Hints:
Blueprint: H1 8-13, H2 15-25, H3 41-46, E1 57-61, E2 64-68, E3 71-72, E4 76-77, E5 80-82, E6 91-92, H4 94-111, E7 116-118, E8 141-145, H5 156-161, H6 183-193, E9 198-203, H7 205-214, E10 225-227, E11 234-239, H8 262-265, H9 300-306
Parallel strand pairs: 5-7, 9-10
Antiparallel strand pairs: 1-2, 3-6, 4-5, 8-11, 9-11
Amino acid sequence: MTLRLASSKIFGKLALAGALGVGLVSADAGAQQKQPSPGSAKAIFGSVSLPSQGPAQPIGFYAKGCMSGAVALPADGPTWQAMRLSRNRRWGNPAMISLLERFSRDAQQQIGWPGILVGDIAQPRGGPMFNGHASHQVGLDADIWFTPMPSQRMNAQQREALPFTTMLQKGKFLTVDPKIWTQSRAELLMLAASYPQVERIFVNPAIKKKMCDTWTGDRTNLGKLRPEYGHDSHFHIRMKCPPGAAACKPQAPVAAGDGCDKSLAWWFTKEPWAKPAPPKPNAPPPKPPREGMVSDLPKACAAILAAPSVSSVAEATYGGGSAASALTAVPAAAPAVSDQGLPAIGPVPDDKPMQ
Length: 355
């Protein structure tokens, strides 16, 4: 079903947003964050370099949890390369790592995609990250770049500096650039959505609309594509809680249908761009939000932080030590294009449980 957008009057009021649209949506929602305070959950989980020993378990919700027994996606595979290695975020539940390997292979064999570039999955023990994401906390979320894997193997520095490529057209409000968007990217999204263990795939609202308007194949899984700002240069795969993961808190199922309805039309109205209401006269200034602490997470997360670590990255790399890459995860001096900046223009919705 083709989405009917809001009136031209609304688009006129969104002119400024359109001018800044690419800058706004080209970074992960929620990326503008200050350095976490010592003792906060973000600081503690971000300082852990290796996963815990023991069985793999996702604990809690995608945006409020942790994980035990994580494994690392090898930095290199026949049909994938892991990106931004200095972040140390290529850890996940074995079910997620297995899915990524299968997806990369299927993409090459079924649609001729050269291979995938894998962005953030999770930290070694999950938990909140100090920048970039509200979710990715239990090892069941992963970011896949819309940029295909190059033919050469990139070194660590190249993986830090390779710029993101937005799928949006500059100077237009939430519009996919026809010179960049390809049918193969649409096929890649629908292949990712085809796996029964995949529950959602977050994409920019403009990409969702493009898929609604142009996808002529089987639309059974089109509803899994959920509109969300910050996903114009990559898409975000979210898996269901694995069978037997009793401590994993599931998300509400995606509503029936293809999602090309009022829930999509909302993203093209004024509401997402609305400024917050001004404070009442003489009202005291609002208190700054309290930083999340480990005690705010499920109780098991404190024990997971205290659990002994595996001996090395190689030991915990999916496929065994022989699959561990020799690449050194060295931080880059400065990426060619920053993925951290967001202009200050209204609230930017983050991963929302209702999506």
